Amino acid sequence: MLNEAASFLETLFSHITDAILIVDYQGEVIGVNPAFERLSGWSAEEVLGQKSLCDLCRGMATCQEESSCIECFASRLKTPSFQMHLQTKQGAELPVAASSTRLPEEAGGMGALVVILRDNSEMQRIERERHQRQLTNYVIQAQEEERKRISRDLHDGIGQALYSIMVGLRVVNQIEMDDATKHHLEEVQHLTARTLEEVKSLSVELRPSALDDLGLVAALRSYAKRFEQTFGIVTTLEIAGQRRRYDSSVETALYRICQEAMTNAAKYADTDGISLRFVDEVDRVELHIEDTGVGFDPTQLKVRGTGLGLYGMRERVSLLGGTLKIESAPGEGTAVHVVVPLEEKGGPRYGHPIADRG
């Protein structure tokens, strides 16, 4: 019976996925399992009787404290959870989640210390990525809120003030005056009207009211019309599937992606035509933007800077749990395909619905 138990424990020691390090009361390594060899790069022959705990440990920390060598976990009977930096054979310091416990005392000295190690680098990478995505999400949310505020101030503040000035100028224009003064007044009226139109256009570019009031489809239709008038590029829009409202984060992201893709086409594609296709399926929405321009080699594309470039487009889609695919080749135009999985109520199925609070 004892032999069977010993055999079982030996098998467990050899096959467990967590690395195990056994240290005697003097701090010398007296046992390691194969998982430790794989984790550290050290072979058993290179550490047994050759290395001490201090040769392998490059520092430890608990959630409450950074521990010094004097307060080392080796001096404690048990440390349920801490982080340790393991010195690998390649010279790297590998962050590992660890726990330690001391075996029952043996005759003539303290019991051996058993340290269980688990590679923490992948978990830390995932946590960093999660934090980065959360930070990006908050930045996009703050950006949209600020755009909405400025757009509203332009429309309700400066826009209304300019309109009031125009009304006043029309009243003044009814007064008898010499031709030179009247001509000058008319020029001021025309300048004020142009400025008012520019303010309205800027307000819409920052945050179109149609996006909040009427939804994504209406906003895309309105933007396509303005785009065609501004750049002289023939723009077609096809809508397939049901027409419904989506979560604000979905509508904002798709609108901004469409805006960026079409602006890029106008700037760089040398195209005379752009087609938009928006498809609403039961469990997802798709947005396709295609131009007939000069195209480019996507493998040679270098994404630089921040904001609403290609990097920003990918980030917006990623935050919604969707995918963005860019197809292009020199002389063959460019196609941008976006797919966002949706819940039944129009929210992102896998993403972060707080990307915009509407």
Structural class: alpha+beta
Name the average pLDDT.
82
What CATH architecture of the largest domain would you give?
2-Layer Sandwich
Report helical residue fraction.
Answer: 40-55%
Strand order of the largest sheet: 2-1-7-6-5-3-4
Count of DSSP strands: 12
Order of helices and strands: HEEHHHEEEEEHHHHEHEEHEE
CATH topology term of the largest domain: Heat Shock Protein 90
- Count of helical segments? 10
- The CATH superfamily of the largest domain turns out to be Histidine kinase-like ATPase, C-terminal domain
Tell me the name of the CATH class of the largest domain: Alpha Beta
**N/C terminus separation:** 69 Å
Summed up, the domain count is 3
Pick out the low-confidence regions. 303-308, 353-358
Structure keywords:
single chain, 358 residues, alpha+beta, Beta-Lactamase, 3 domains, 7-stranded antiparallel sheet, 46% helix, elongated, EC 2.7.13.3, PAS
Question: Could you give the topology of this structure?
Answer:
Blueprint: H1 2-15, E1 19-23, E2 29-32, H2 34-40, H3 44-47, H4 53-56, E3 57-61, E4 66-67, E5 78-87, E6 93-102, E7 113-119, H5 121-173, H6 179-206, H7 209-213, H8 216-231, E8 234-241, H9 248-269, E9 273-280, E10 284-291, H10 310-319, E11 323-328, E12 334-341
Parallel strand pairs: 8-9
Antiparallel strand pairs: 1-2, 1-7, 3-4, 3-5, 5-6, 6-7, 9-10, 10-12, 11-12
Helix pairs in contact: 5-6, 8-9, 9-10
